[in-house]
Amino acid sequence: MADKFFIRTFGCQMNEHDSEKVKGVLLDMGLEEAESEKEADLILLNTCAVREKPVHKVYSELGRFKRMGDKVIGVLGCVAQKEGKRIIERMPHVDFVIGPRNIYRIKEAFERAREGKKSVFTDQSSRCAVTDLSFPIARENPYRAYITIMEGCDNFCSYCIVPFVRGREVSRPPEDILEEVKILSDAGYKEITLLGQNVNSYGKGLDKKVDFADLLHMVHEVEGIEWIRFITSHPKDFSDRLIEAVMTLPKICEYIHLPAQSGSNRILELMNRKYTKERYLEIVEKIRSYGKYVAFTSDLIVGFPTETEEDFQETLDLIKKVEYEGIFAFVYNPREFTRAYNWEDDVPMEEKKRRLSELLKVQDEITQKLSKSYEGKVVDVLFDREESGWLVGRTRTFKIVKTRADKSRLGHIVKVKITEAKMYELKGEIVEGDV
Ligand code: SAM
Ligand code: SF4
Ligand code: F3S
């Protein structure tokens, strides 16, 4: 009987997509996916190190696996990169540790584990797996696909561990990206999401002079792909040329995740974000000046070192001005290696939590209001899955829509009239076939 594997994934879309790559290799090796950890011969944790809590969680999960008998255990992702061999020192039943730049070595690590050898693959200068097109990818969804366009990050925001665990920014050559988009189009995919920690600075270091706006134009040419998204944008690199591409190319969806982090210029400077609140609002204004409704979402941090009530009020003001459809808000968490780690974490936890809940309360009202505004409207929806008798999909603005319809609509973009809007999900009825 073939060996079975089970992967648990934490963290961001890059990690989700890395798991799809690892899964692709394992299936290619003849392994099968297990239904649960219990029935797996190989258990993998693809981990996130952006905050401390998930790092502790990794260790407690690994402790739990110890009691599960004779299994191969591997740790992948950002905690693997951060902790390296320390993981095996603390948890000797772990067989291998592989950082994000080395996931293509999963086969080697598994085979070594079978011979009783431990492996730690965390060389940051390693050949980047994303540039290898022969890498088999087992995508979770048959209609919507992630495509890596760059790895790593060079921005060094003063709070963020990502540049230390994901390494320097490397852009993937446009020809490789286009080839992958064509393969996806031939396989029937309708939507692609271009992935990178800061897609707006795409192109740095490539032989050919090409930027993100150029890449969007190129990808847009590929027939069959109908919707294009990208994540994540950094406000400092949102040029007018890029705004024009995003707003005028019809396949690009009206959804922009544009993390602001804070509304206070003093805090933004300490964060090393390289834009002001005014510049951020100017980008939003320019985008809106095209006259199309665009859904914005954001990441925000409260309780950054030295953040005062006035600074926090600036953040509240920003979210009210932009009117995001949704936000991801976090309390500041000091991270090893980062610049801010050396600064006093001086906002008391109680105060951080108060600011977080106030921020979320204000945002909830905005989300609710914007969600309600969909009621009665007809929107395009790409249905991509079935869930307890409902067809579930997303609008171009990334809102979840559910409807009662037969499965033949899966993988199609369909016009839906929204009949009921909840905060995070819309319900509706199909009004006609494919658009
Ligand atoms: N590259 C993206 C960007 O520029 O926003 C995503 C970075 S990170 C993977 C996702 C979010 O985690 C960040 O946008 C930030 O809001 C949050 N984050 C990162 N480091 C943090 C820290 N030390 N404490 C709290 N939140 C943090
Ligand atoms: Fe972290 Fe800043 Fe890079 Fe985003 S842009 S990954 S927040 S360092
Ligand atoms: Fe976490 Fe690594 Fe993504 S730290 S948020 S999984 S890049």
What would the keywords be for this entry?
435 residues; alpha/beta; Rossmann fold; pyruvate-formate lyase- activating enzyme; OB fold (Dihydrolipoamide Acetyltransferase, E2P); 3 domains; 6-stranded parallel beta sheet; 19 strands; 33% helix; globular; binds S-adenosylmethionine
Walk me through what this model shows.
With 435 residues, the chain is an alpha/beta fold. It folds into three domains: 4-121, 3-Layer(aba) Sandwich (Rossmann fold); 128-371, Alpha-Beta Horseshoe (pyruvate-formate lyase- activating enzyme); 378-430, Nucleic acid-binding proteins (OB fold (Dihydrolipoamide Acetyltransferase, E2P)). The protein has 13 helices and 19 strands. The strands form five sheets. The chain has a six-stranded parallel β-sheet with strand order 2-1-3-4-5-6, with helices on both faces. It has a five-stranded mixed β-barrel with strand order 15-16-17-19-18. Strand 15 and strand 16 form a beta hairpin. Helix 8 (212-220) packs parallel to helix 9. The radius of gyration is 22 Å and the shape is globular. Residues 11-12, 14-15, 48-50, 77-78, 162, 165-166 line the site of FE3-S4 cluster (F3S). The site of FE3-S4 cluster has 12 residues, from helix 1, helix 3 and helix 6.
What is the topology?
Layout lengths: L3 E6 L3 H16 L3 E2 L8 E6 L4 H15 L5 E5 H7 L2 H5 L5 E3 L7 H9 L4 E3 L22 E5 L1 E2 L10 H5 L3 E2 L2 H13 L4 E5 L16 H9 L6 E5 L8 H9 L6 E3 L7 H6 L6 H12 L6 E8 L6 H14 L3 E6 L17 H24 L5 E10 L2 E6 L4 E4 L9 E9 L3 E10 L1
Parallel strand pairs: 1-2, 1-3, 3-4, 4-5, 5-6, 7-10, 10-11, 12-13, 13-14, 17-19
Antiparallel strand pairs: 8-9, 15-16, 15-18, 16-17, 18-19
Helix pairs in contact: 8-9, 12-13
Bound molecules: S-adenosylmethionine, iron/sulfur cluster (SF4) and FE3-S4 cluster.
S-adenosylmethionine (SAM) binds next to strand 13.
